[in-house]
Inverse folding.
């Protein structure tokens, strides 16, 4: 019996949480025949970007994160608008958050935001040779400090576990694998 | 002006979502004086475990994940019960999900579940020399297939981006750094 043979018996819409719509799926467990109510957070995908200057510095954004109540150093990024492509969202978010724009864009793959209870993915991009020639345009709910860190130092911070966001860690991993720094 | 100087003006309790309590924080942005409503999902912490047999195989659990509707290969783990320590939760979850128990436990650190909108952390442990001498005891909402993979193969899968859960990726990263496979 495959672990995928769960049956969704029915579902109910849950409350709207601004960042998410919610849904309750009533899933029948093939192992024991019992039905369990599972919460799903529905949202658009998101994107984050490894943006590197010609001087081999990577652009980070320092922000206050309300979930854990601390400042984090994260990659630029954000939500993919409806109808937008992930790469386009990456370019837009990079410029809006940091004013940097870049010519060379490479996909570094994607990962589930959280496969347990979210239906979305985060897409990773590498933007090489970025320049601060765009226009910063923050949302009302954003305040960011743009920080450039030499990529060797980023690698050390990565090894030390200095990054607090699992999505930033995965993007950095994909980047260092892409660059064959990790092999 | 520090990016941490946001003020929480007030908060409201949101709906109860079974896996989470929700809270709306009304945060005043120091950059523009505007107040934005932010959703926070409140929950207990969780834990995942790199459990290695004496034959240098790592124990994974194959499960169907409702969020993305696919089977994933993940590390054993789960929620830390109220009043429980993270390591105790790791030992309990490893045994309940896989029947493996182990003598040597090392902390591999923790990371925020999602610092943007969650208040919890996931703690990572390395359990070395595990043996299948315990008792599997799955929750009603679980169905898992236990899979042993030689650690060299795990490393290749890790490099290829085969793991779908960012928390599993971070635990594996901390493990390979700990083992000086990545340095």
């Amino acid at each position: 019996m495959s672990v995928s043979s769960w049956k969704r018996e029915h579902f109910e819409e849950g409350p709207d949480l601004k960042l998410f719509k919610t849904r309750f799926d009533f899933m029948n467990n093939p192992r024991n025949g019992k039905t369990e109510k599972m919460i799903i957070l529905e949202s658009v995908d998101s994107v984050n970007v490894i943006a590197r200057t010609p001087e081999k510095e990577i652009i980070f954004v320092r922000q206050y994160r309300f979930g854990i109540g601390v400042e984090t150093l994260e990659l630029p990024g954000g939500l993919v608008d409806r109808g937008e492509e992930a790469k386009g969202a990456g370019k837009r978010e990079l410029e809006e958050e940091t004013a940097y724009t870049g010519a060379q864009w490479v996909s570094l793959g994607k990962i589930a935001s959280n496969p347990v209870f979210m239906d979305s993915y985060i897409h990773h991009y590498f933007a090489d040779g970025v320049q601060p020639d765009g226009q910063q345009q923050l949302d009302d709910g954003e305040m960011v400090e743009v920080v450039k860190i030499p990529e060797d130092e980023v690698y050390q911070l990565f090894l030390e576990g200095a990054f607090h966001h699992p999505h930033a860690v995965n993007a950095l991993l994909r980047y260092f694998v892409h660059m064959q720094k990790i092999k």
Chain A touches chain B through 68 residues (CB under 8 Å).
